[in-house]
Amino acid sequence: MYPPVGFHFRVDFVGLAAGTVDSHFQEVSGLATELAVEELVEGGENRFAHRLPNRARYGNLALRRGMATDSKLQRWCEDAILHFQFQPVTVIVTLLNEEHEPLAAWRFERAWPVKWALSDFKAQESAIVVETLELAYSYFTRVQE
């Protein structure tokens, strides 16, 4: 079996009545976690500091797509960023195979928007307008099928 391709995926917002346009993105990034390390200095030991594992840290989940003109997801972002009304949701990113069946999925708990941005408008280029949505979340786990 070949390794999966990274261009066939779906994003679902559980708890947010979003339409089909809100599940298609051209890029998802930020699926990463790292273990924080705490250094403990021992008196009289100058050669090294003890490095102890601490809790996991997560960055933001970034979603990019061509700008949608009528999107419940955009209204959700506006409510949080402009009106300070937060409705945390669960986000599921699913990697799909060539038959559109799930290969792997990751569940992001209590996600909420922290940034929304549009790409630059440039008259000399014929590019589509891309919107970027960054989400903070509590933690993520791999969904077992």
Automatic annotation (TrEMBL):
InterPro entries to which the protein is assigned, alphabetical: CHP02241, Phage_T4_Gp19
One Gene Ontology MF term: structural molecule activity
Signal peptide bounds: none
Domain of life: Bacteria
UniProt name for this protein: Phage tail protein
